[in-house]
Automatic annotation (TrEMBL):
Keywords: Signal. One of its GO terms (biological process) is regulation of establishment of protein localization to chromosome. Pfam families: DUF4503 (PF14951). This is SPIDR protein. GO terms for cellular component: nuclear chromosome; nucleoplasm. Residues 1-18 form the signal peptide. Residues 1-339 form the DUF4503 domain. The lineage of its organism: Eukaryota, Metazoa, Chordata, Craniata, Vertebrata. The keyword Signal applies.
Length: 340
């Protein structure tokens, strides 16, 4: 019983034309308002010997077909009900694979964090960003995966499911960069974002597996997890080797050359005191250099620091992924990220 298929059935019920009931006379006019929706459905396929299916382009679309009605994300968040069909345009800001390391990448669920003008142009009544869960059964085209691997893109989500506070892409959901021909966009705000994207700031309502902006004061450093490593100053490769000819130099396999001036990168985990969440210990893992530069106050750090020089530094606003939110102890675990 696939949720996507039954969501479509429910959206077309009750039918426009009378339903023929096997074993009953069809002469009398039947009412269909009190009939329950079907508990099963047929999946149409071609015969095993057929190579392809020919489509008659001139044939009119049946009046039983309901084209997807495009909504803004704000409108979708206000829908009451479960497994409701929804279609929308959204700007994809961040992509994260769900952590199942034993499963192939193309078989993992994906979290897409998206927004649109209906969320960005309002005050605090609605979230600025929404998470869209893309199930492994939803096949993404090569065009989509390549586009999202490069930069933030405006993507059309056709026939996703909304329910229990979540948007889910299942086997019959289609993601595309182009608007489909049969589409109803009455009243939907489809304008593109013009200004900088704003994230929701960390507060008492922030939940795990979301993204947020955070600012605060450094009150502690986890020295046991701090480490540094050299990277190539040309391509950023962090897996340098010792040069075979001169053990005192580093060699980059990606650039196929000696790295004369390696750039030192650090991982630094800091604890912040945040006015927006005063009762929580906020732990931020910095891998991307933003925290390093803000806390150490330098761009050319050499992999060492004095803890006392870090304490009391102001950090923010940082874009972060929320790993965990716990109440005992009251702690929030964040990871610094870069938006697409």
């Amino acid at each position: 019983r696939a949720l996507g298929l039954f969501s479509l059935i429910d959206s077309l019920w009750p039918p426009v034309v009378p339903v023929k009931v096997p074993g009953q006379s069809q002469d009398s006019e039947m009412t269909t308002t009190n009939l329950p929706p079907p508990s099963f459905c047929y999946i149409l396929t071609v015969h095993s010997g057929e190579r392809h299916v020919e489509v008659d382009e001139e044939e009119q679309i049946s009046n039983l077909y309901q084209p997807p009605a495009v909504c803004g994300l704000k409108e979708i968040l206000q829908i009451d009900g479960c497994n409701e069909r929804c279609s929308f345009w959204a700007q994809v800001l961040y992509l994260r694979l769900q952590t199942k390391h034993s499963v192939l990448i193309n078989q993992r669920d994906i979290l897409l964090f998206v927004t649109d003008s209906t969320l960005q142009n309002v005050v605090h009544t609605t979230p600025k960003v929404v998470a869209v869960s893309v199930a492994a059964s939803c096949v993404l085209s090569t065009e989509i995966t390549e586009a999202l691997g490069v930069a933030s893109r405006l993507v059309f989500f056709k026939d996703a499911l909304w329910g229990n506070g979540r948007i889910i892409c299942v086997e019959r959901t289609v993601l595309s960069l182009q608007k489909p021909l049969l589409c109803l966009a009455a009243g939907a705000d489809l304008s593109e974002l013009t200004g900088p994207v704003r994230l929701d700031e960390l507060d008492s309502t922030t939940q795990a597996n979301s993204i947020c902006a955070v600012k605060g004061t450094v009150v502690g450093v986890n020295e046991s997890t701090a480490f540094s490593w050299p990277t190539c100053d040309r391509c950023g490769n962090g897996k340098l080797e010792l040069c075979p000819q001169d053990r005192g130099l580093l060699y980059c396999n990606r650039c196929v050359g000696v790295v004369v001036s390696p750039v030192t990168r650090m991982q630094l985990e800091v604890f912040l005191s945040c006015p927006s969440r005063p009762q929580s210990a906020v732990k931020v893992k910095g891998l991307l250099g933003v925290i390093i530069q803000l806390t150490l106050g330098c761009h050319q750090c050499q992999g060492s620091y004095e803890v006392q020089s870090v304490l009391g530094k102001e950090v923010g606003l940082l874009n972060c992924y929320v790993h965990s939110v716990t109440s005992h102890p009251n702690c929030v675990g964040l990871e610094e990220i870069v938006l697409l």
